Amino acid sequence: MNLREFLKKQGLNFTKQREIIFSTLYNNPNHLTAEDLYLVIKKQHPELNIGIATVYRTLAMLEENGLISFIQCSNGKKFEISKSHHDHLICTACGKIVEFHNNEIEKLQEKIAKENSFKLTNHIMQLYGLCEECQKKEKEKL
Amino acid sequence: MNLREFLKKQGLNFTKQREIIFSTLYNNPNHLTAEDLYLVIKKQHPELNIGIATVYRTLAMLEENGLISFIQCSNGKKFEISKSHHDHLICTACGKIVEFHNNEIEKLQEKIAKENSFKLTNHIMQLYGLCEECQKKEKEKL
DNA sequence: GTCAATGCAAAATATTTGCATTCGT
DNA sequence: ACGAATGCAAATATTTTGCATTGAC
């Protein structure tokens, strides 16, 4: 997805700030909060003198348009570039996030929605637990 | 679950505030935020003169001990009494929440965790969409 | 009486908004 | 040039914390 073209199509201006917010998310394998992004960009592009409000506004705009998505964590929303739909396994000890996709579950979700006369637009599924390493660390503690 | 006995077992004091926070959640069919609870209790038990900090502290304590659970909504955590595990269908138009449980999905979640060497402790799954009434309203608008 | 729990107010966090200025087209 | 987008600072909203006081046991 070309950001410049996308913005043009929406009648929005292409700006250095929007470009960098998008590319920073694009090039970062992690899920980032608005604050994270703000700090990273401030460090990597000090000449830009970016404002936190711009980060929030841009993230909201990109999210509304489906270019990025987020998971709601205890410390706020964490954003990522929208790829094909996937859900998350989250380690409660080290915070590691693993993405996965499962068609069977998606079908069952649709079935449940149908049974309740809901028309689904979206969903979140987050599985919390301990990753392999943190399970080992747990054992060592004992 | 008897709150008084539970607190005793944990070495915690039984207080009027804790009793009322718990019973208010218990008797309310809705999912309530800390703020919601604070306002309801203030109205229904003005003599108690409850503080918002007590509500937050009590909810955190009850949640840590598994007596209540919450779903993370855009406007904060919404609490409910812990019943047998279930997930949520949420109408994005009117905010209606429908609870459901599906064993097949739970099994698939365990399978996914196993494939990724995670040991699951918990999960959240929220399906967003339009409930029957709001779908009708949508149509009427056009 | 002792220590846990509370209310209050202040602090910390997270996010949004108003507005003058800058920038993209 | 014009309106959209920005940075800044102030405003909001949400949750947490310090502390003196109250209340449970």
UniProtKB/TrEMBL annotation, chains A, B:
Binding site for Zn(2+): C91, C94, C131, C134
Cellular localisation: Cytoplasm
Cofactor note: Binds 1 Mn(2+) or Fe(2+) ion per subunit.
Protein name listed in UniProt: Ferric uptake regulation protein
PANTHER family listed in its UniProt record: FERRIC UPTAKE REGULATION PROTEIN, ZINC UPTAKE REGULATION PROTEIN
Chain segments annotated as transmembrane: none
SUPFAM superfamilies: Winged helix' DNA-binding domain (SSF46785)
One GO biological process term: negative regulation of DNA-templated transcription
Recorded GO CC terms: cytosol
Function statement: Acts as a global negative controlling element, employing Fe(2+) as a cofactor to bind the operator of the repressed genes.
GO molecular function: DNA-binding transcription factor activity; transcription cis-regulatory region binding; zinc ion binding
Primary residence: cytoplasm
UniProt keyword terms in alphabetical order: Cytoplasm, DNA-binding, Iron, Metal-binding, Repressor, Transcription, Transcription regulation, Zinc
Binding site for Fe cation: H85, D87, E106, H123
